[in-house]
TrEMBL record:
<dbReference type="GO" id="GO:0050418">
    <property type="term" value="F:hydroxylamine reductase activity"/>
</dbReference>
<protein>
    <recommendedName>
        <fullName>Hydroxylamine reductase</fullName>
        <ecNumber>1.7.99.1</ecNumber>
    </recommendedName>
</protein>
<dbReference type="InterPro" id="IPR004137">
    <property type="entry name" value="HCP/CODH"/>
</dbReference>
<dbReference type="InterPro" id="IPR010048">
    <property type="entry name" value="Hydroxylam_reduct"/>
</dbReference>
<feature type="binding site" description="via persulfide group">
    <location>
        <position position="391"/>
    </location>
    <ligand>
        <name>hybrid [4Fe-2O-2S] cluster</name>
    </ligand>
</feature>
<comment type="similarity">
    <text>Belongs to the HCP family.</text>
</comment>
<feature type="binding site">
    <location>
        <position position="237"/>
    </location>
    <ligand>
        <name>hybrid [4Fe-2O-2S] cluster</name>
    </ligand>
</feature>
<feature type="binding site">
    <location>
        <position position="305"/>
    </location>
    <ligand>
        <name>hybrid [4Fe-2O-2S] cluster</name>
    </ligand>
</feature>
<dbReference type="GO" id="GO:0046872">
    <property type="term" value="F:metal ion binding"/>
</dbReference>
<dbReference type="GO" id="GO:0042542">
    <property type="term" value="P:response to hydrogen peroxide"/>
</dbReference>
<feature type="binding site">
    <location>
        <position position="3"/>
    </location>
    <ligand>
        <name>[4Fe-4S] cluster</name>
    </ligand>
</feature>
<dbReference type="GO" id="GO:0051539">
    <property type="term" value="F:4 iron, 4 sulfur cluster binding"/>
</dbReference>
<dbReference type="GO" id="GO:0005737">
    <property type="term" value="C:cytoplasm"/>
</dbReference>
<feature type="binding site">
    <location>
        <position position="480"/>
    </location>
    <ligand>
        <name>hybrid [4Fe-2O-2S] cluster</name>
    </ligand>
</feature>
<feature type="binding site">
    <location>
        <position position="419"/>
    </location>
    <ligand>
        <name>hybrid [4Fe-2O-2S] cluster</name>
    </ligand>
</feature>
<feature type="binding site">
    <location>
        <position position="261"/>
    </location>
    <ligand>
        <name>hybrid [4Fe-2O-2S] cluster</name>
    </ligand>
</feature>
<feature type="binding site">
    <location>
        <position position="444"/>
    </location>
    <ligand>
        <name>hybrid [4Fe-2O-2S] cluster</name>
    </ligand>
</feature>
Length: 535
């Protein structure tokens, strides 16, 4: 295997087993599925040119790609099923296309069994990529990883009934483009920026999906810690799964807790109305083995990031695209096994920890006080905004973000989103004239909201986003962060500070390009970076 798609990759790439726990066999199956998804995309592009649109193949394309994102699915049997489904959809679509001779992944016949597929997958890993130029390879991998992020957002939106054929078409075009052997460096850069633009569309679609289903997030106080009684913990990013579980547990005497990226769910009117949505338990994904082991109820993983279950294997359930071999997978939205498990477990014997955090400062909430914010900037009460957000992870350098936020001066405001916020989400930073100094915009899936806030501020001050008193200090881990980064670049946003380490798939030449054109810089120390930003 060779994998370097995430931030925690082993030095030079994971080669024997992933730092995430991904096995060599699983990596081969993922490589095969990704390759075949590119073939399905080629066929979909050709079909579309002949006026044939296949909604099922379109949706499947994003599901297949999303399932190869870091920490989503580790279950080989599920990959075998996805590979077979991919080829069935590809061939059904091919039958409707005339006069095209398909080759490569559009024609590849998968092996009949898992062992054969694993052997086949080993031929389609990055290490087998015939690309001779390292910079081209770097840009194509950046594009592929960005597309994994776009696919994740598109899938989330589709789950809530929001789809866009033009978006699927672009994803498939770009997936097919990653197979091209005659792209120039300039064309690869343009394709990566196009991926960023498509990601904005995907995030917009998701924002529309979330807010039309559950209302606009509103500032909400969330209880940390536990309430006495039976319990289910919901982690991942999927709002619909949470809603379904809340409905199925009504009146059953079970309290529902959010974990990790599900924290912002408490701010949605149509989710917070359930009295048994009791609070938030735990922090970011990389702490789950300790936190889940101590949770006295059932656990439901709705999306990434899952880690190897330890003592709680019989209490953890997966749903949607997420999977771990040995963990019970719930499909068809029937959470009965999760509920029965929670009822059989002890639950919390007593109330604990009464502290709270505030969530719900998404675009609508922030823009509703835009006048106050703008006045505070004009009067000098607010000197600067920082967007400190992105993914969390296990590497030690991530303490930078805690220290950075702690050291931001009292006349500055910190906007945050995604699971990186757990490094500082419970800090009491106070307020500036009633405006909280720490504003939680939401999940990584809500990056669209952050972009809209920045654009609205730029509009109010009649300047470009780069001229605003706003600095982006981002942390990355998986491929949704790659997609968001490409979106920010596509919007022309400069001076981003990125950490804790730069992507292993970025070559020195590509990095130079990013520095020259966007002034991207790796994080240094909180003191140095604050000094540089605030002048
Ligand atoms: Fe390694 Fe990350 Fe790939 Fe897992 S996803 S194998 S940790 S690079
Ligand atoms: Fe986190 Fe996995 Fe990226 Fe959603 S939960 S931000 S890492």
């Amino acid at each position: 295997m060779f994998c370097y798609q995430c931030e925690q990759t082993a030095k030079g790439g994971c080669t024997k087993v992933g730092v995430c726990g991904k096995k060599d066999e699983t990596a081969a199956l993922q490589d095969l599925l990704l390759y075949l998804s590119k073939g399905l995309s080629q066929v979909a592009v050709a079909a579309r040119e002949q006026g044939v649109e296949d909604p099922a193949a379109n949706l499947f394309t994003v599901k297949a790609i999303f399932s190869t994102l870091t920490n989503v699915n580790f279950d080989d049997d599920r990959f075998v099923a996805l590979i077979n489904d991919c080829v069935a959809k590809r061939d059904a679509l091919k039958a409707k296309v005339s006069g095209v001779e398909f080759t490569g992944p559009a024609a590849l016949v998968p092996a009949a069994d898992k062992a054969g597929m694993i052997a086949q997958g080993k031929e389609y890993g990055i290490e087998k990529d015939p690309e001779l130029n390292e910079d081209l390879k770097s840009l194509k991998q950046t594009l592929t990883y960005g597309l994994k992020g776009v696919a994740a957002y598109a899938d989330h939106a589709a789950i809530l009934g929001k789809e866009d054929n033009d978006l699927y078409a672009k994803i498939q075009e770009l997936m097919a483009a990653t197979l091209s052997t005659d792209l120039t460096l300039e064309q690869c850069v343009e394709a990566a920026l196009e991926c960023g633009r498509q990601n904005i569309r995907a995030m917009e679609l998701l924002d529309d999906a979330n807010t039309s289903a559950y209302g606009h997030p509103e500032p909400t106080e969330v209880k940390l810690g536990a309430t006495k009684g039976k319990a289910i913990l919901v982690s991942g990013h999927d709002l619909k799964d949470l809603e379904t579980l809340l409905k199925q547990t009504e009146g059953k005497g079970i309290n529902i807790y959010t974990h990790g990226e599900m924290l912002p769910c408490h701010a949605y009117p149509e989710l917070k109305k359930y009295p048994h949505l009791a609070g938030h338990y735990g922090t970011a994904w990389q702490n789950q083995q300790k936190e889940f082991a101590e949770f006295p109820g059932a656990i439901l993983m709705t999306t990434n990031c899952i880690q190897k279950p330890t003592t709680y294997m019989d209490a953890i359930f997966t749903t949607g695209l997420v999977g771990w071999p040995g963990a019970v997978h719930v499909s068809n939205d029937d959470f009965t096994p999760v509920i029965e498990k929670a009822l059989a477990m002890g639950g919390f014997p007593a109330d604990t920890d009464k502290s709270t955090v505030m969530v719900g400062f998404a675009r609508n909430a922030v823009m509703s006080v835009a006048g106050t914010v703008i006045d505070a900037v004009k009067s000098g009460d607010i000197r600067h905004f920082f967007l400190v957000g992105g993914c969390d992870g296990a590497k030690p350098g991530r303490n930078y973000y805690t220290e950075f936020v702690e050291k931001t001066p009292a006349d500055t405001v910190v906007l945050t989103l995604a699971c990186g916020k757990f490094r500082f989400f419970d800090k009491k930073l106070g307020d500036i004239g009633g405006i909280p100094r720490l504003l939680d915009i939401g999940q990584c899936n809500d990056a669209y909201s952050a972009v809209q806030i920045a654009l609205a501020l730029a509009d109010a001050f009649d300047c470009g986003v780069n001229e605003l008193p706003l600095s982006l200090v981002l942390s990355w881990y998986e491929q949704k962060a790659v997609a968001i980064l490409l979106s920010l670049l596509a919007l022309g946003i400069k001076n981003i500070k990125l950490g804790p380490s730069l992507p292993a798939f970025i070559t020195p030449n590509v990095l130079n390009f990013l520095v020259d054109n966007y002034n991207i810089a790796p994080i240094s120390t909180p003191d140095e970076d604050l000094k540089e930003i605030l002048g």
